[in-house]
Amino acid sequence: MSYVNPAIRDKFESMPIDLKNAILSMDVKLETMSDLMACLERIIAEGEGHA
To answer: What is the pTM of this model?
Structure first.
């Protein structure tokens, strides 16, 4: 089950719903903005076929 730290929840909630769902489906623990950025980079890499 994914977790989003309340300190970055506003940034997370400002993203499009499809992107939020993709992140949540990854079963990640997002404590910092760096965690969130790493997750987004992973989604981009998977979309480009580099995962």
So the answer is: 0.85
